[in-house]
Design a protein that fits this description.
Layout lengths: L7 E3 L8 E3 L4 E6 L12 H11 L6 E6 L11 E5 L4 E4 L7 H13 L18 E5 L15
Parallel strand pairs: 3-4
Antiparallel strand pairs: 1-2, 3-5, 5-6, 6-7
Helix pairs in contact: 1-2
Bound molecules: FE2/S2 (inorganic) cluster.
FE2/S2 (inorganic) cluster (FES) binds next to loops.
């Protein structure tokens, strides 16, 4: 049996034996089964195709589809995630939002923890967040009163 390993490259620095991964570190997920009320259309497939094209040169990103993220009442749902960062779930996305989604993805990539305020997100993403889930280990202690 052959076990496939991630594609990797060794550090170009002599003596540095760390391995540099060429695998994407961020994921943009589009629900391909979302269906607006009263419609047979599944617009997530077109949105996925557009985002795949717009993000093709962004090596840090893997763009893919999924069947349902439990946000069915707010089609189309999309999510952005990366290890040790906030996970975002948005609803009400359509093809006209693709440019803003790609812009936010690049913004998210640059944020150390992926956390930002509504006013910092482009277009409809400022008001269509359904979840902003902190990375594991980033929750505040019970006596903290900070909220941003
Ligand atoms: S069908 Fe898209 S979130 Fe459920």
């Amino acid at each position: 049996m052959t076990i496939q390993r991630p594609v990797t490259a060794h550090s170009p620095i002599p003596g540095d034996d760390r391995t540099l991964s060429t695998e994407p570190t961020h994921e943009l997920v589009v629900c391909v089964t979302c269906r607006p009320r009263g419609s047979e259309d599944r617009p997530g497939k077109a949105l996925l195709a557009e985002l795949t094209a717009q993000m093709a040169a962004d090596a840090a990103w893997r763009v893919g589809g999924i069947e349902c993220m439990a946000a069915c009442g707010r089609p189309c749902a999309i999510a952005l995630q990366s290890q040790d960062k906030t996970t975002w779930l948005f609803g009400d996305m359509d093809l006209t939002d693709a440019e803003d989604i790609a812009r936010f993805a690049r913004q998210y990539e640059a944020l150390p923890d992926g956390w930002c305020k509504a006013s910092e997100r482009p277009g409809k993403l400022a008001r269509t967040a359904l979840a902003r889930i902190p990375a594991s280990g980033r929750v505040l202690p019970p006596d903290a009163d900070a909220c941003t």
